[in-house]
Amino acid sequence: MRERNGSKEERQEQILEYILQYGSISLQEVVQHFECSEATARRDLEALEKAGRVIRTMGGGAKPAGLVSGREIPFHEKQNKLYREKESIAQLAASLVEEGDVIGLTGGTTTYLIARALKNRRNITVVTNAVNIAMELSENEDVQVVLTGGMLRSKNFELCGPLAERTLEALNIHTMFMGIDGFSVEQGVSTYSELEANTAKMMMKRTERTIAVFDHTKAGRNSLFQVAPVTALYGIIIDEEPGEELRERLASEQVKVFVTAK
Amino acid sequence: MRERNGSKEERQEQILEYILQYGSISLQEVVQHFECSEATARRDLEALEKAGRVIRTMGGGAKPAGLVSGREIPFHEKQNKLYREKESIAQLAASLVEEGDVIGLTGGTTTYLIARALKNRRNITVVTNAVNIAMELSENEDVQVVLTGGMLRSKNFELCGPLAERTLEALNIHTMFMGIDGFSVEQGVSTYSELEANTAKMMMKRTERTIAVFDHTKAGRNSLFQVAPVTALYGIIIDEEPGEELRERLASEQVKVFVTAK
DNA sequence: ATATTTATGATTGAATATTTCATAATGATG
DNA sequence: CATCATTATGAAATATTCAATCATAAATAT
User: Fold this and answer.
1) Are residues A252 and A166 part of one domain?
2) For position A250, which CATH number holds?
3) pTM for the whole thing?
4) Who is most buried in A260, B1, B8, B177, counting CB within 10 A?
């Protein structure tokens, strides 16, 4: 190949660098900067777009949304699978919230949608350990947003660890909506991550009423780390009627079951 | 005018809504959705682009970077005024950081640049109350990022209030870089906001060495809320040699003065 | 030494954008 | 109420940018 000024990879890295600094780049800037043809410039931008690191504009490229220094922030959108189900769960959850409430939200897709459903409320307080949820809600001045402290987990922008737990000690939450990865009669609610499980546990301790929110694919499944037995729950919100056994057990434990309308 | 389905404003709001949900929209989608001509669709996207709420792509529009639900996150770029000065301050600050250090960073443009300068370091811990700084650094797994808790101030994404202060009580910071709005011999360091001043004060209490960072436009100026007298500082980093009087006073107080190379 | 792969540049037709003008609806003015 | 200016819109012409294809040269493999 006839490389003039460095390899394709270097060029693309530099384009990225440029975009990160200036926000965008024009095709002509690429051409002049690297003394390459338009075809090459376009191909570079195309490759970067495919990698999700650049959004192509008319005559150039720009920084894509939802990326902070090249990483994606989980601001979930409708593309997500089970969006409709999760959205209906979120709507139901939001309907349980009243003015003046102090709400707790763990991290997760469903809880993020609950946050969005609460976005235009007045006079509520939301406590969360998820940075993306906090940012979404902070737009509204009428919603007081409290972020727990803690170590920032880069993968999902959740705050965890002893510091998060220490912060929670100072708070009293009325109703908490807990996103989980697994739910069963025997094991109760569980998550994939130990850190998240611990933070959720701590959050529960500071909460009057804990409501687990999850879609039907999580029901009857167990994840690695148990957060709490079903008896510790005030209620669950789910998008499908639970099975006979589960329903009976929940009834006997006085756990409320909210099922979304189809 | 011949309005078919609602006004221009409504249409543009709906386009925005759509983009917020799906991430992007095509010209044809706009045309079909609103039953308008391509010209109108383009004009709408053009107007939204001008307002900074949409980034125009080839054949459509998309969510611009740095916007969360329509608001800008302060991820500062080279356009900022005094960028060169602040960058040089940041570089100097970063050069004072060694492996294993526990660093504190308040919110602000300069401290954000320090964070960026520290981004590729290994084995350091950064404590901050600024969400954007935390997010920037969390990309690197080798930097441990600790976010203080607290109320999220929507304007600048800083965490403040009693909870932030409570979190800090559990931490011991080695060197803290403090961004400020004013610096003078008499008043010491000061900021515009009382909340920020309080949080900074608390952070200082938990810090061995506090270094104030600011550009020359801040020197000799006082802001409303005092954070600390000069005697409480370990040092300052500034981009211009301070005046005679200031220099003498700082020398007598054993406050180190770091001036960036031109 | 030859073949293969890869990166690049050039060309051309297609898609998209910009500009300009015409028209219809709305509101203001006398 | 007639007239005029303003605004929103659509249509058409022009200009720009893009995508696809092919050719070529360098690097790599056989």
Assistant:
1) yes
2) 3.40.50.1360
3) 0.81
4) B177
